[in-house]
């Protein structure tokens, strides 16, 4: 169940704290193929199951940017914002993919609110995100995800982020 962060002050109160982990999400070959079709990213390591069996990982692996694309829905599994305006994705700092994600494995996201600072117009959030995989040792993604949240009020409960 996601944690509920209320208002600017409520968000800031969690700065420096771990917000939790998302649920596990399976990365299937169908998902990898759909991503390849959408983005025209046909790397054989990702989509050619027979050739990948003879490759460095012994099976196909997910495209790195498919894994990045999973961050937004996984963040919504970790927290919700209440009593604030809209939140917009602002950028990504220090994005790394230390280990590939094998097909048919599961990933989840661990999120720490690194900082939450106002600048007069809104709130700038930095989320320290580490993604783990049940089939690997060590993280498969590490990044600081940057969001900008307006101070004006919106719906009673806003989604965690907007893509």
Automatic annotation (TrEMBL):
SUPFAM superfamilies for the chain: Thioesterase/thiol ester dehydrase-isomerase
Q: Which residues form the signal peptide?
A: none
- MaoC-like domain location is 21-115
Q: What InterPro entries is this protein classified in?
A: HotDog_dom_sf, MaoC-like_dom
Q: Which PANTHER family match?
A: MAOC-LIKE DEHYDRATASE DOMAIN-CONTAINING PROTEIN
| Protein name (Swiss-Prot/TrEMBL) | Dehydratase
* Species per Swiss-Prot/TrEMBL record: Caballeronia choica
């Amino acid at each position: 169940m996601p944690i509920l962060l209320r208002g600017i002050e409520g968000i800031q109160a969690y700065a420096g704290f771990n917000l939790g982990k998302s649920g596990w999400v399976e990365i299937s070959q169908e998902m990898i193929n759909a991503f390849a079709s959408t983005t025209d990213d046909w790397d054989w390591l990702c989509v050619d199951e027979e050739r990948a069996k003879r490759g460095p990982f012994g099976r196909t692996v997910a495209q790195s940017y498919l894994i990045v694309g999973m961050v937004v829905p996984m963040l919504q599994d970790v927290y919700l914002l209440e009593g604030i305006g809209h939140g917009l994705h602002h950028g990504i700092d220090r994005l790394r993919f230390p280990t590939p994600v094998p097909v048919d494995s599961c990933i989840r996201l661990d999120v720490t609110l690194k900082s939450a600072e106002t600048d007069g117009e809104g709130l700038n959030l930095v989320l320290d995100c580490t993604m783990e995989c049940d089939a690997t040792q060590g993280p498969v993604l590490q990044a600081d995800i940057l969001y900008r949240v307006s101070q004006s009020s919106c719906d009673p409960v806003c989604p965690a982020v907007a893509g």
